[in-house]
Amino acid sequence: MKKHSHNDDNTWFVKIIHWFFEKCSAIVCYCPWTCMTLTTIVTLVLSSKIPFTPMQNDISDFTPFGAKSRVELETYRQFFDNHGEPKAIYAFITSKHNDNMLGISQLNDTVQVLDKISRDFYLKTAHGPKNFEEYCSGFCLLNEPVRHFYSGMLISGQHGTDFSHLDLGYPITTVLGTKLYMDPNFFGVKVASENHKIESVADRNIRLFADSTKQVPNNIREIALVVLQFRSELGDEVKPEDLRNYEHEILDYIHEDYHSDHINVYILTDSFITEEIVRAGLSLLPFLAIGFTIMATFSSVTFVLSAYYLKQLNYYKIVLAVMACVCPFMACGASLGTMFFLGFRFGSILCVTPFLVLAIGVDDAYLMVNAWQRITCQRRKEGRVKNVKEELKHRMTEMFIETGPSITITTITNALAFGIGATTPAAEIQLFSIGNALAVIADFIFTISMYGALMAVVGHYEVQEEFKNIPETQSETSSTNSSEPESQKQLEKEKDGKFRRLLMKTCTILTNTWVCSIVLGALAVYWYICIVGTVNIKSELSPNKLFLEESNIVEIFKQRKTHIIPYYSACWILVENPGDISDPAHRAELERMISAFESLPSANGRYSTKFWLRDYEDFLRQSEDIDLPLEEEEEEELAIQFTVNGSQVVTPSQPFGKGNELRQFLEWPEFSFWKGFIQVNVTGEHYQLTKFMVTTAYHGNELVDWSNRAKLLNEWRNVADQFPSLNVSIYEEDAKFLDLIETMSPVAVQSALWTFASMFVVAALFISHPPTLFVATFSILSTSLGVFGIMSWWGADLDPIMMSATVMSIGFSVDIPSHVSYHYYQTAKETCDIRKRLQMTIEAVGFPIFEASLSTSLCVTSLFFVNLNMAQIFAKCMLLVVIIGMIHGMLVMPVIFALLDTVPKKLTSKTSRKNESTVTLVTIVR
């Protein structure tokens, strides 16, 4: 058997790769069935963990580690640590008729929903089942304004609206002398102004209710959305599964059993969000089966056509085609199972991984099969080794040595790209990157151990059939040769000649000066478009992209974006060190702090602030004027008027103990709801304030863009930092996403730069020729830039999903340029003619690249039929990588190679002509 001596001009790394694959070839040829059996057993064992691993998703996993929002969330949780974990259930209610909730029927059904959720569903606790009214603590009365407003509607309908104690207005509603703030419950409100115009609350910067503006009585004309909040703090005695079951009972009733002719009800809970993310991930699985079927069918057709053309057709080609798609799935199952055995969680984003690994795996299989068929054709022409075993080993070794470096370089670069993605400061992106990196490495191993062994089995059959059909004496005597074999050989030679002439004409066109100029001009336009798109891409977020379009959560997010965010973006202000509130000067400092928040440009103003200290100040002022009754006069009741942030209430008087005002304040029935906003240490009958929180709201149509909300969040934080002695912190429910916005651009740029640097280093390990290395790196950069820029023009924003897809795109963009540049580099050992080199390169990788590109495109096309934005982002990126990569590999790279070959020749030609002229001149002078 001929020794492989073509390693001499390769880099030291390629020589190691060749040595490695020679050993692998020997092993898979020696014991192919053992290799396949062991690989199958390992896959089954490791994959068995997958069906028993439940999906676990937390929407905050996209938040960067070390983000300020994580600290703020922990501070918020610690605020309630003496009561338990803060939990909330929201009911979003809209009208089925004219989108207006301002109607007796709509509000009647709303109050029925409020009563149903508050009283008819029971949470299992250590002290027995309890409904919301029984287990809630500090926030039991958040929805009472809705109930009172409905009562006012009933009174208004029966007796008219000319009572001074009845004003169904916004933001303040007065019912029976009690003033209620409706802004936390009513959204998308339109009111009548003093000039009798109907205006949205958001119009004119929400100055309809400034301190100098009087609220028009009964001014509400439209309510688009009513929100009910069921907030509570649950201790350790409530098990997570019991809470999930409780929330599920509410969800199931509203979604399946509840019916109303007047309203739509949407329930939002933490467990529902998690389940919907899981459902979105699972929705990909049927399309994975569709994608596999498409790819397996396409592979079978192309394998059969190529084998038929090369006179190597047998039914085993179908087996190879199907297994080319099965092996990536096996590798994916083994790698994900390993992760779950190691304790990694099963995030729904990992459902995209099989699609990615399938695209990579079939590419390697196509290269191997194509190389085997070309080597077989060559061996048939050159003559065979008489021993079937030796012939098989020779062909397998040649095949592995030819394709091994290409397979290795794509594996290393993809693994590195995902490895760098694993360094991003977001748990979800880390999980996605680690899963893909492990799957790519596993696919490399399975390509050798499983697919290589299968090719050895099929190859043994093919070689054996060849030896059976050709007499042993045919190679020794010419007398036995018939005219039929000679005519067949002549026909095959003519076919081969036509194909090569066509290829040569194509390469001649590619090296034409005019064609090169046109391609470079088109490339310049392409770069301009992509750079503009990349520069203008916007860092933006939209959590609803994680859910299926038909999910109720998408509708909830839509209602929030339309009716809540522009009108009432709530800010929770937590004061950890309130100090001595008995000191008027210190209370004035607290008031200055809150006023600083209310003075921001987008603040709704004082009316939207829920600040207990203002009621407490009124309480103190009026309590000083109370004349306590004598014991014999106890039958007489004195009335005191207080304000709840300006709302008037009437309550019976009670005696006050000196230094005990805070306790009396919180025990007063009309002020008991402030207990949810205040934390105290109780010593006997004395209450010591330890911390408190305040809520206020902001507005602006620009807040529908998350980037603008991120700016507002930073404004809040800047105000909080101005009062270090009070230890003020901010809590915003969406801060975990908003913090990601500022980090996405620098993290994406940093990841891209590190990835490109890694790609260059890896390419240098395989290619020692600087011009070829430059072309490969340029193509990778150009492909990645194209994906990023075109995705921007396609409407994509820079969000966590897009960041993950970007990491994937950079890794995938290496495949085609690396195959083309490596094979082009190898052709220098056989010829210096540029057209011949391009022809040999296209012969080696052209058909596999086309085959892999088309099959991948067909596979990912199925993802466009999933109503899930995450799936469509990945599908678009993969489609662009394939198309742009193939154009670069088959058109741009050959043109640049031709130019790099032409320039030195022209320079040499000019130099030689100059030298000739000099010699001629010297001769004449002589």
TrEMBL record:
The chain crosses the membrane at residues 284-306, 318-340, 346-369, 399-422, 434-458, 502-529, 747-766, 773-795, 845-866, 878-900. Pfam families: Patched. Residues 471-485 have a biased composition (Low complexity). Residues 291-457 form the SSD domain. Residues 470-493 are annotated as: Disordered. The keyword Nuclease does not apply. Its main location: membrane. Gene3D superfamilies: Multidrug efflux transporter AcrB transmembrane domain. GO terms for cellular component: cytoplasmic vesicle membrane; plasma membrane. One of its GO terms (biological process) is endocytosis. The keyword Glycoprotein applies. It is a multi-pass membrane protein. Keywords: Cell membrane, Glycoprotein, Membrane, Transmembrane, Transmembrane helix. Belongs to the patched family. This is SSD domain-containing protein.
